[in-house]
Amino acid sequence: MPLVTIQLGQCGNQLGSSFFHTLGEELSSNDYGTQVVSEFFRPNPAVTSSADVSSRNRPLLARALLVDMEPKVVDAAYSSTSLPSCSPEPSHPAWWWSYARANRLCQQGGSGNNWSLGFHGFGPSMETPLLDLVRKEVEHLTLYPASYSSNPPPAAPALASAPSIAAQAIRDTFPEAHMLSCCVWPYDTGEVVVQPYNTLLTMAGLTTATDGVILLENEGLHRMCQKVYDVASPSFSNLNLAAARSLAALLLPSRTREVCGCGGGRGSGEREGRGSGRDVAGGEASVNKVSRRLIDLHLHRHSPSYTSSPFSPSSDGPSSSSYGTAPPLTNLGDMVEHLCAHPAMRLLTMRTAPQVAPQNVQYTSFAWPAILKRMRQMALTGSVVESGMDWTAETDSRNCRLSYNPLQRSTAMPPYTEFCRHPSSPPPPPLPPPPPPPPPPRNVSLADWLVLRGSDAERVDVSDLADPKLHDRFVVDPLKVSYSGLPYGGCTMHTAMISNDQGCVRPMERMQGMARAMLASHAFVHQYERYGMDDQELRESFDSVEETLERYRLLSPGGGSGRGTY
User: Fold this and answer.
1) Where are the beta strands (DSSP E) in 232-293?
2) Would the pTM count as exceeding 0.85?
3) Phi, psi (degrees; rounded to nearest 5) at 333
4) How far is Cα 164 from Cα 154, in angstroms, rounded to an integer?
5) Smallest Cα–Cα separation from 386: which of 349, 359, 351, 348?
6) Which residues make Cβ contacts (< 8 Å) with residue 337, sequence separation at least 6?
7) Angle, nearest 10°, between helix axes 283-302 and 9-29?
C-alpha cells in the first residue's frame, strides 16, 4: 500500500530527506521490484521518454509533502536531490528520483516557540492549503493511502504546533487511513526554555489523532552516533542519518512468517540468478543496473512507444508468482493494527541489530544467534543502542523478575574513620554489609513487530523474542514476524524491531517533571494565554500525558503479579 509522507518543520524535512536518500540507496543496491518502489515513489508525468530525463527532471517523484513556516529548509531538501551533472549511465543512487516541485507549503514567518500562537494563530490558515496538497497527492494513488507522517521534534522553534494541526486535519479528512507519526524527542537540556510545554502539548494531540507515535530520542541517537558510528561530536545530520536507517529497515516491505521459522516462502531476491542483490564487482555496477531497470520499467509502463529497454515489464521484481504461495507484502496498516490495538497506548520504540558503521560492514561477520541475542537483550533492558548495554539483566524463571548477580557488586571502601583513628583507640565496630543495589527496571512490552532481512531470514527461529516474560501478562499474541531475503545496508543479516513498550516512560517522565515545575510557578504561561490558551488547557494536556504514562507503568511481565517494574 503506498505511503504518503508529510515532512513537517525543520527536523521533519531534514529527517525526511535522509529517509528518502536511504531508500534510494537501498532500492538502487537491491532489486526489490517496482511494486516496492511504487510504495514510496510515483511516476513523473513530465518524463515520457529517455530524452526527458535530466538532473532536474527525474523519472520518479517521492510521495512526500514538504511543509515549513520558512522556505529555507524546504529549499535545502530540494537541493539535496540536485546533482552537478547528468549522464546516460547514472551511478548516483538519487539520480532517478526527486521531490515534486508542487508538493511544498511555506510561509515567511514562525510562531516564535509559542505553541498557542502556532495552533490558534497560524493553524487555521495552514490547514486548508495542507489538505489541498494531501488530496492532490492522494489522487495519484490507486489504493486508499496509509499515511506515514515524519514530524519535527515537539519543541521545534518554527513549527511547534504543526504536528497536532496536521494530524487532526488529516484524521478528519481521511478517517479510514492509517496514520503513523514519527516524533523526534528533544534533548533534555534544550535551547528552548518553553520546550517542556511544547513537547507535552504536542504529544497530547498526537496520541489522540494518530494511530501510533514512533519516539526517536535525540539522546539515544546521540549515543548511537558516538559509540557505533565513531562520531565524537554528532551533528543533526548524523542523528538524522542514524534515524533514517532505522526507519528504512522497518518500513521497507517484507513478508509475514511464523515465529518458529518453519513457515514462509523463499526470501525476496532469492530467485535463481538474482543472488544477494549486489554485483561481485562492486556497488557502482549494481547501482547502475538497478537504476536503469527502474527508469526503463517506468518508461515502458507510461510510454508504449519506448522500446529500448533490455528489461521486460513482466519481470517486475520478485513477484508473487516467483514465491509460489508466499504471503503478500506487509504494509504500514498491518503494523499499526498489531502494535496499536489499545486506543490509549500508542507510543512506539524502534531498535535495530546489528549496529555497524558502514565502513566496518565488510570486516564484520554475521550470525543469526548472536544478532537475535543482542535484540533480545535490548528488548529486555529497553536500550536502543547495542554498545554499553546491561548484559547482567536476566529474567528469573521463578518470579519473572530481574535476577541480581552478586559477582557484579563492587567492594565497598572502608570508612574514613578506619584511616584516621588513633593507634591506642579501640577499633570501631564492624559495619553491616551494604545491601545489594536494586536491579535495574526491566522493560515490558505490549506488542512487537520484528523484521528480518538477509540470508535464511525466512527460516531462523525467533521464539526467544516471543518469551512471555518480555511481554505483558494479558497479551495473547505479542510478536509478529516478517522477512525479506535481501540484505540491508550491506549487512547479510539484519533485524529491526518496533515495540509498543515502556521505553517511552523515562524520557516522558523527565519532561513531565520539568513542565509541572514550570506550571507550578506559572512560568511563561502569559505567553500562551495571549493567543487563546489558559492554565486549565495546559493542565488537561499534562494530565492526558500522565494518564498514558500510568498505563505503561502498570504493564506486568508474563507470569508475574502486581505492578510493572517502572
Assistant:
1) 255-257
2) no
3) -60, -40
4) 9
5) 351
6) 178
7) 100
Backbone angles phi, psi at 351, to 5 degrees: -140, 145
- Burial track 521-544 (b if 16+ CB lie within 10 A, e otherwise): eeebbebbeebebeeeebeebbeb
pLDDT higher than threshold 50 for residue 472: yes
Write the pLDDT tens digit of every residue in 259-281.
887 644 443 333 333 333 333 33
Whole-angstrom CA distances from 268 to 265, 322, 486 are: 9, 9, 6
Q: Which of 74, 157, 168 is nearest to 113 (CA)?
A: 157
352-389 pLDDT, tens per residue?
999 999 999 999 999 999 999 999 999 999 999 998 88
Q: Is the dihedral of CA 464, 469, 472, 474 positive or negative?
A: positive
Report pLDDT for 87: 45
Alpha helices in 340-423 (DSSP H): 368-381, 417-420
SS3 186: coil
Identify the three-state secondary structure at position 65: strand
Instruction: List helix spans (H) across 64-117.
Output: 71-79, 115-116
Rounded CA separation 40/67 (Å): 18
List C-alpha distances in Å: 215 to 248, 396, 423, 446.
15, 29, 61, 16
Judged by DSSP in three states, 542 sits in: helix
Residue 330 Ramachandran class (φ > 0 left, ψ -120 to 50 alpha, else beta): beta
Helix axes 505-520, 535-553, angle to 10 degrees: 150
Rounded CA-CA distance 378/152 in Å is: 26
